[in-house]
Amino acid sequence: MEQVMKDLKSQASKSTTPGKGGLTPEIQSRIGHQLRAMYDDVVRQGVPDRFAELIKKLDAQGATPHVENEGGSNDNNNGRD
Questions:
Q1: pLDDT digits (tens, 9 = 90+) for 56-79
Q2: How far apart are CA 34 and CA 4, in angstroms?
Q3: Does residue 8 fall inside a structural domain?
Q4: Labelling 65: which of 4, 17, 26, 79 has CA 20 to 30 A away?
């Protein structure tokens, strides 16, 4: 992936109009293709089991609110009401 980025930077510096900046449509297309490929790879990996378990635990805690310092003056609002 690092080599692809170096190639894109090199090609971009050769292909852009001096003083105008920006990327050519070809470079934009190649970057888009690489980003889609990376995104697809991440999506295919799915959610790791430990994250799924953590989400389940957090959902279960959300169903039964946990209250600390009930009636105390320090109720985690840091002076904000």
A1: 999 998 776 555 665 555 545 555
A2: 9
A3: no
A4: 79
